[in-house]
C-alpha cells in the first residue's frame, strides 16, 4: 500500500493497490500546472484511493475539451491528483511527488516529449513518445484489463 500527503500534512491518502501505469508527462499543461519541467502521474482506479482531510477541487481545461478536476489540499494548495473527464473520472492520476516514498513509482512511459525542456534527458530504457500513444500497444495485458474494468 502506497501512502502520501500534501505539503502541510492536513491531507493524507493511501493507494490500496499498486498503480496501473505511471506516466512522465512533459506537455505544456503539466509544466504550467506543476511549475516544473514535467509531472509523474501514477494512474489508478478512483475507488482504490482513500483520502482523509479537507480538499478542494479545481476544474481546468484540457486539450480534449472535456477538462480535468485537480484535487488539492484546502490548506496548502498542493495538488494530490487529477481526474480527467475523458476517462469519466473513473481513474485518478496521483502526483507521484506527493507519495511518502516516490521511488516506488518510477515511470513506465514518457509522453509529449516534443515539449520537454531541452535540459531534461530522456532515459533510453523508458519508452518515449513525442505525443501520446496507444494503450493497446504499450500497456501490459494486466494493466489493460484493469483499465477496461475501471472504465466499464
Explain this structure.
- The structure is a single chain.
- Strands 6-7-8-9-4-3-10 form a seven-stranded mixed beta sheet.
- It has a single domain, classed as glutathione-dependent formaldehyde- activating enzyme (gfa) (Alpha-Beta Complex).
- Helix content is 14%, strand content 33%.
- The chain has three helices and ten strands.
- The radius of gyration is 15 Å and the shape is globular.
- The chain is of the alpha+beta class.
Cα separation of the termini:
24 Å
Q: What is the number of domains?
A: 1
Assign the CATH class: Alpha Beta
Looking at the structure, the CATH topology is: glutathione-dependent formaldehyde- activating enzyme (gfa)
Topology:
Layout: E1 2-5, E2 12-15, E3 21-25, H1 28-34, E4 39-45, E5 49-52, E6 55-60, E7 68-73, E8 79-84, E9 91-95, E10 109-111, H2 135-138, H3 141-151
Parallel strand pairs: 3-10
Antiparallel strand pairs: 1-2, 2-5, 3-4, 4-9, 6-7, 7-8, 8-9
In short, what is this structure?
The protein has 152 residues and is α+β, with helices and mostly antiparallel strands. It has 3 helices and 10 strands, in the order βββαβββββββαα.
Task: From the structure above, extract its key features.
single chain; 152 residues; alpha+beta; glutathione-dependent formaldehyde- activating enzyme (gfa); seven-stranded mixed sheet; three-stranded antiparallel sheet; 3 helices; 33% strand
